[in-house]
Design goal:
Elements: E1 7-17, E2 39-42, E3 45-48, H1 52-70, E4 76-77, H2 90-99, E5 104-105, H3 117-123, H4 126-131, E6 132-133, E7 136-137, E8 140-142, E9 146-147, E10 158-166, E11 173-184, E12 189-197, H5 201-215, E13 232-236, E14 248-253, E15 266-268, H6 270-273, E16 287-289, E17 297-299, E18 302-307, H7 309-329, H8 337-346
Parallel strand pairs: 4-5
Antiparallel strand pairs: 1-12, 1-13, 1-14, 2-3, 6-7, 8-12, 9-12, 10-11, 14-18, 15-16, 17-18
Helix pairs in contact: 5-7
Length: 347
């Protein structure tokens, strides 16, 4: 599938710290604070940033919860094997059996190395179809989020805070349990680029679900979220950057005259582009009827269109509905007999 480009989506996500934020570097300082944020060397100086791997983990984790809430036994658990380890103790095997009630074993362990790509994609859960697994590369790429605005004040974006361990018996400060940390200050804004390629419409809706939760400040990030750290908000940037006209930009490859072409009043997903074959398990009716036409603009070998304002609002709403519909229609795994009997007994 990835040997050809069918359709792509691109947008810039701005992330704002609504409170102190700490994504730990993992390195101890010799004479400085006990915990420090991750740093990168950029613009001639060291500055804080948010790793793309952290952002992708947040997106995936949130969507695993959302999909599991909409329909259990659809999304897999990357840390769940097909069978419990025989060397595990009784409590470990019991936890494994409990996990099988709400999630599936990891998709990456289901296929052989030489399995055809279409077979792997068709047999993967919706989360692995978007983010990939050890058997198949994902559809979405999320870059590192760098500081927005005047970077000459990068060092002023960090402040030091004191912390202390709590004695579980007295509720007061524990003896010799003081620590200190550096955190990113409130109001600091970062920007990252999200690129989605060869996507089905419901996969675009998946990303919009997480963006909506970020806008509503329902997701915390980094360390110390239970202690008041990590409150963030986010929005899709409307700034024009080169060929990217702000909002959400979609692209298709310019085809030869006479070949089928995406009309201005529709958005085609992968399933509609591949309507001649169903080997990937996509839906032939994978398209949206737009409320108003969004024109295509030639840009090299691509045709680009930018969704902003009401067009973006309409796109988000329809794509999220496609996501909900796809999850409701997704085949649910069969619950083992002993699990089903236990669930009936609990009722």
């Amino acid at each position: 599938m990835l040997k050809m480009l069918v359709n792509e989506a691109h947008f810039v996500l701005e992330i704002k710290a609504e409170g102190p934020l700490l994504i730990k570097s993992g390195y101890n300082t010799i004479s400085g604070p006990d915990m420090t944020p991750v740093l990168t060397y950029r613009n001639g100086r060291q500055e804080v940033f948010i790793p793309g791997s952290s952002l992708k983990g947040i997106f995936r984790s949130q969507l695993e919860k959302v999909v599991g809430s909409i329909k259990p036994l659809v999304a897999c658990n990357p840390f769940l094997k097909q069978n419990a380890d025989r060397n595990a103790n009784e409590s470990g095997i019991k936890r494994h059996q409990e996990a099988l009630k709400v999630s599936l074993p990891y998709c990456g362990n289901k296929f052989r190395r030489d399995s055809p790509a279409d077979e792997v994609y068709k047999g993967s859960c919706p989360i692995c179809r978007l983010f990939g697994s050890t058997s198949f590369i994902g559809r979405v790429a999320i870059g590192d989020a760098y500081l927005v605005g005047d970077t000459t004040t990068a060092q002023k974006r960090v402040e030091r805070r004191d912390g202390v361990g709590i004695d579980r018996m007295t509720g007061g400060a524990a003896d010799k349990a003081k620590f200190d940390m550096e955190v990113v200050t409130e109001g600091t804004t970062f920007a990252t680029t999200i690129h989605l390629r060869n996507f089905e419409i419901w996969q675009l809706g998946m990303l919009f679900v997480v963006v909506q939760d970020l806008e509503d400040e329902l997701i915390r990030m980094g360390s110390g979220s239970a202690r008041g750290l990590g409150q963030i908000s986010a929005r899709i940037s409307t700034d024009v950057q080169g060929w990217h006209g702000g909002g959400v930009s979609t692209t298709t490859i310019r085809s030869a005259q006479g070949q089928k072409q995406e009309p201005d009043n529709q958005l085609w997903g992968l399933g509609h582009w591949l309507s001649h074959t169903n080997s990937y398990g996509t839906r032939p009716n994978d398209l949206l009827e737009l409320a108003s036409p969004v024109p295509h603009t030639p840009h090299g070998i691509r045709l680009v269109r930018s969704f902003t304002g009401d067009a973006l609002t309409n796109l988000r709403g329809q794509a999220i509905e496609k996501f909900l519909q796809a999850m409701s229609e997704w085949p649910q795994a069969q619950v083992p007999a002993q699990t089903a009997n236990a669930q009936r007994g609990q009722r």
